[in-house]
Amino acid sequence: MKRSVLISVLAIVAATVLVVVGAVSMLRGQPGSNSAAPEGEEGRSTVTNTVSEIEAGSRPDCPTGTVGGVELPCLGATSTDGAVADDQVTVVSLWAWWCEPCREELPALQEFADAHPEYSVVGVHADGDAQAGAALLDELGVTLPSYQDTENLFAAQLKLPPVVPVLVVLRGQETAGVVPTPFTDADDIAAAVEEVL
Protein backbone atom coordinates (compact mmCIF):
# COMPACT_ATOMS: atom_id res chain seq x y z
CA MET A 1 0.00 0.00 0.00
CA LYS A 2 1.34 3.40 -0.88
CA ARG A 3 2.26 5.69 1.98
CA SER A 4 -0.20 8.42 0.86
CA VAL A 5 -3.10 5.92 0.84
CA LEU A 6 -2.14 4.70 4.33
CA ILE A 7 -2.04 8.26 5.66
CA SER A 8 -5.45 8.97 4.09
CA VAL A 9 -6.97 5.85 5.68
CA LEU A 10 -5.54 6.76 9.10
CA ALA A 11 -6.90 10.33 8.78
CA ILE A 12 -10.38 9.00 7.92
CA VAL A 13 -10.31 6.62 10.91
CA ALA A 14 -9.20 9.43 13.24
CA ALA A 15 -11.94 11.76 11.94
CA THR A 16 -14.55 9.03 12.40
CA VAL A 17 -13.47 8.49 16.01
CA LEU A 18 -13.70 12.23 16.69
CA VAL A 19 -17.21 12.41 15.20
CA VAL A 20 -18.38 9.45 17.33
CA VAL A 21 -16.89 10.96 20.51
CA GLY A 22 -18.53 14.32 19.70
CA ALA A 23 -21.91 12.68 19.08
CA VAL A 24 -21.74 10.80 22.39
CA SER A 25 -20.83 14.04 24.19
CA MET A 26 -23.79 15.86 22.62
CA LEU A 27 -26.20 13.05 23.44
CA ARG A 28 -25.02 13.08 27.06
CA GLY A 29 -26.77 16.45 27.49
CA GLN A 30 -30.04 15.50 25.76
CA PRO A 31 -33.11 16.19 27.94
CA GLY A 32 -34.49 12.98 29.36
CA SER A 33 -31.31 11.04 28.81
CA ASN A 34 -29.57 9.33 31.67
CA SER A 35 -26.01 10.18 30.81
CA ALA A 36 -23.00 8.21 31.89
CA ALA A 37 -20.22 9.82 33.87
CA PRO A 38 -17.47 11.51 31.88
CA GLU A 39 -14.28 9.62 31.08
CA GLY A 40 -12.28 8.81 34.19
CA GLU A 41 -15.37 8.96 36.40
CA GLU A 42 -16.62 5.39 35.89
CA GLY A 43 -16.44 4.68 39.62
CA ARG A 44 -19.06 7.30 40.48
CA SER A 45 -22.54 5.98 41.07
CA THR A 46 -25.37 8.14 39.77
CA VAL A 47 -27.84 6.13 41.82
CA THR A 48 -26.35 6.41 45.31
CA ASN A 49 -25.20 10.05 45.18
CA THR A 50 -28.60 11.56 45.92
CA VAL A 51 -29.68 14.86 47.41
CA SER A 52 -30.41 13.17 50.75
CA GLU A 53 -26.77 12.08 51.06
CA ILE A 54 -25.43 15.63 50.92
CA GLU A 55 -24.50 16.93 54.36
CA ALA A 56 -27.41 18.90 55.83
CA GLY A 57 -26.68 22.59 55.99
CA SER A 58 -23.77 22.45 53.54
CA ARG A 59 -25.75 24.15 50.77
CA PRO A 60 -28.14 27.13 50.92
CA ASP A 61 -31.92 26.77 50.97
CA CYS A 62 -33.88 26.97 47.72
CA PRO A 63 -37.03 29.04 47.18
CA THR A 64 -40.23 27.07 47.76
CA GLY A 65 -42.33 25.83 44.90
CA THR A 66 -41.48 25.19 41.32
CA VAL A 67 -38.81 26.67 39.10
CA GLY A 68 -40.20 27.35 35.64
CA GLY A 69 -43.21 25.22 36.57
CA VAL A 70 -41.04 22.19 37.39
CA GLU A 71 -40.91 20.79 40.92
CA LEU A 72 -37.34 19.81 41.78
CA PRO A 73 -35.59 18.90 45.04
CA CYS A 74 -33.16 21.41 46.49
CA LEU A 75 -29.51 20.39 46.10
CA GLY A 76 -28.44 19.62 49.63
CA ALA A 77 -30.86 21.72 51.67
CA THR A 78 -34.54 22.24 52.31
CA SER A 79 -36.76 24.79 50.64
CA THR A 80 -37.56 28.11 52.27
CA ASP A 81 -41.06 29.42 52.81
CA GLY A 82 -42.62 31.78 50.31
CA ALA A 83 -43.69 31.18 46.74
CA VAL A 84 -42.36 33.09 43.74
CA ALA A 85 -44.47 36.16 42.93
CA ASP A 86 -45.99 36.49 39.44
CA ASP A 87 -43.72 39.42 38.59
CA GLN A 88 -40.55 38.06 40.27
CA VAL A 89 -37.63 37.73 37.86
CA THR A 90 -35.65 34.54 38.37
CA VAL A 91 -32.39 33.89 36.55
CA VAL A 92 -31.71 30.17 36.27
CA SER A 93 -28.45 28.58 35.19
CA LEU A 94 -28.80 25.01 33.94
CA TRP A 95 -25.41 23.40 34.59
CA ALA A 96 -23.66 20.09 35.29
CA TRP A 97 -20.65 19.22 37.44
CA TRP A 98 -18.64 17.77 34.52
CA CYS A 99 -19.13 20.80 32.24
CA GLU A 100 -16.01 22.99 31.81
CA PRO A 101 -17.92 26.09 30.61
CA CYS A 102 -20.20 25.70 33.66
CA ARG A 103 -17.12 25.72 35.91
CA GLU A 104 -16.23 29.12 34.42
CA GLU A 105 -19.79 30.49 34.43
CA LEU A 106 -20.84 29.64 38.00
CA PRO A 107 -18.47 32.13 39.72
CA ALA A 108 -19.60 34.87 37.28
CA LEU A 109 -23.20 33.96 38.09
CA GLN A 110 -22.44 34.31 41.81
CA GLU A 111 -20.92 37.75 41.16
CA PHE A 112 -24.01 38.70 39.10
CA ALA A 113 -26.34 37.56 41.91
CA ASP A 114 -24.37 39.54 44.51
CA ALA A 115 -24.58 42.68 42.35
CA HIS A 116 -28.30 42.25 41.50
CA PRO A 117 -30.37 41.47 44.60
CA GLU A 118 -33.49 42.50 42.66
CA TYR A 119 -33.35 39.12 40.90
CA SER A 120 -33.66 35.65 42.33
CA VAL A 121 -30.67 33.71 40.96
CA VAL A 122 -30.62 29.91 41.20
CA GLY A 123 -29.02 26.94 39.52
CA VAL A 124 -30.42 23.67 38.23
CA HIS A 125 -27.88 20.84 38.31
CA ALA A 126 -28.71 18.62 35.33
CA ASP A 127 -26.95 15.38 36.24
CA GLY A 128 -27.70 12.33 38.37
CA ASP A 129 -24.70 12.82 40.68
CA ALA A 130 -25.97 15.33 43.25
CA GLN A 131 -22.88 14.89 45.45
CA ALA A 132 -20.54 15.86 42.59
CA GLY A 133 -22.72 18.90 41.86
CA ALA A 134 -22.63 20.09 45.48
CA ALA A 135 -18.88 19.44 45.63
CA LEU A 136 -18.26 21.60 42.55
CA LEU A 137 -20.28 24.48 44.00
CA ASP A 138 -18.35 24.19 47.27
CA GLU A 139 -15.00 24.01 45.43
CA LEU A 140 -15.83 27.16 43.46
CA GLY A 141 -17.18 28.99 46.53
CA VAL A 142 -20.59 29.41 44.87
CA THR A 143 -23.31 29.86 47.49
CA LEU A 144 -26.28 30.20 45.15
CA PRO A 145 -29.22 27.89 45.83
CA SER A 146 -29.36 25.09 43.29
CA TYR A 147 -31.97 22.49 42.49
CA GLN A 148 -31.16 18.89 41.58
CA ASP A 149 -32.57 17.62 38.27
CA THR A 150 -31.57 13.98 37.93
CA GLU A 151 -34.06 13.27 35.13
CA ASN A 152 -33.53 16.48 33.08
CA LEU A 153 -37.17 17.47 33.67
CA PHE A 154 -36.42 21.21 33.66
CA ALA A 155 -34.78 21.14 30.22
CA ALA A 156 -37.43 18.83 28.80
CA GLN A 157 -40.45 20.82 30.06
CA LEU A 158 -39.01 24.17 28.95
CA LYS A 159 -37.82 22.64 25.64
CA LEU A 160 -34.27 23.89 26.18
CA PRO A 161 -31.44 23.15 23.78
CA PRO A 162 -29.46 20.01 24.68
CA VAL A 163 -26.40 21.89 25.98
CA VAL A 164 -25.09 23.20 29.29
CA PRO A 165 -24.74 25.82 30.50
CA VAL A 166 -28.01 27.48 29.50
CA LEU A 167 -29.27 30.68 31.11
CA VAL A 168 -33.07 30.88 31.51
CA VAL A 169 -34.82 34.07 32.58
CA LEU A 170 -38.25 33.61 34.16
CA ARG A 171 -40.90 36.17 35.07
CA GLY A 172 -42.93 34.36 37.71
CA GLN A 173 -43.00 30.82 36.32
CA GLU A 174 -43.11 31.89 32.65
CA THR A 175 -40.03 31.85 30.42
CA ALA A 176 -39.00 35.36 29.38
CA GLY A 177 -35.90 34.22 27.51
CA VAL A 178 -33.33 31.48 26.99
CA VAL A 179 -29.63 32.18 26.37
CA PRO A 180 -27.64 29.02 25.43
CA THR A 181 -24.30 30.84 25.66
CA PRO A 182 -21.62 30.24 28.29
CA PHE A 183 -20.66 33.36 30.25
CA THR A 184 -17.43 34.25 32.03
CA ASP A 185 -18.35 37.78 33.11
CA ALA A 186 -21.09 39.09 35.43
CA ASP A 187 -21.63 42.19 33.28
CA ASP A 188 -22.29 40.01 30.23
CA ILE A 189 -24.88 38.05 32.23
CA ALA A 190 -26.53 41.33 33.30
CA ALA A 191 -26.66 42.51 29.69
CA ALA A 192 -28.21 39.20 28.53
CA VAL A 193 -30.85 39.32 31.29
CA GLU A 194 -31.75 42.94 30.50
CA GLU A 195 -32.03 42.10 26.80
CA VAL A 196 -34.62 39.35 27.31
CA LEU A 197 -36.63 41.39 29.79
Give a written overview of the molecule:
InterPro entries: AhpC/TSA, Thioredoxin-like_sf, Thioredoxin_CS, Thioredoxin_domain, Thioredoxin_ResA/DsbE_sf. Pfam families: AhpC-TSA (PF00578). The protein is of the alpha/beta class. The protein has a domain at 85-196: Glutaredoxin, CATH 3.40.30. The protein is built from 5 helices and 5 strands. It has a 5-stranded mixed beta sheet, with helices on one face. The termini are far apart. 34% of the residues are buried.
What is the gist of this entry?
The chain is of the alpha/beta class. It has helices at 3-28, 100-115, 130-140, 153-157, 186-196, and strands at 89-95, 120-125, 146-148, 166-171, 174-179. The protein has a domain at 85-196: 3-Layer(aba) Sandwich (Glutaredoxin).
